Predict the structure.
Amino acid sequence: MNIKKAEFVISNTDPEKCPPDGRPEYAFIGRSNVGKSSLINMLTGKKGLAMTSSTPGKTQLINHFLINDEWYLVDLPGYGYAQRGKKGREKIQGIIDAYLDEREELTCLFVLLDCRLEPQAIDLEFINRLGESGIPFVLIFTKIDKISQSKLNGNMEIYKVKLLETWEELPPIFYTSSEHKKGKEEVLDYIDTINQSLRE
């Protein structure tokens, strides 16, 4: 898939105020500082589409971007940012939960994980919550340019073993580097395949 057009449409905190046109939505989420904004900009080929910052936790709204006039890329707030404080975290989690539970147009959720880290409890809890809710999702491991191939392979094996403790089978997994544009084609082709199946 080639992205020829990517435009910002709306930001809000209420799923009922999201676009009403019924187009499929592919949402991106992860812990703060996982590289979500950089990945979105890399996928769309628009450097400043999603706000990037050295300060974690900047995304606090549901952001809709219309892609090729066909589908929405949705930038969700990051979960679990400790410096927000308990009330701040609860508010953001409420926004995330409302979108995940109420938004019928959500076609697939892309859960971003930092490939340099071993499985984190907060990520595993979130993934299990998706399974319990029946929300279709895939995993995207980010920042693969930051570690060696052998270290990446080792971390992925640890992750797979950990996930298989609670899952019968693994979801689709992608490996990306925003800096080197790795994984772009694979992720976009995956979305394109789903869109084609929806049209049939």
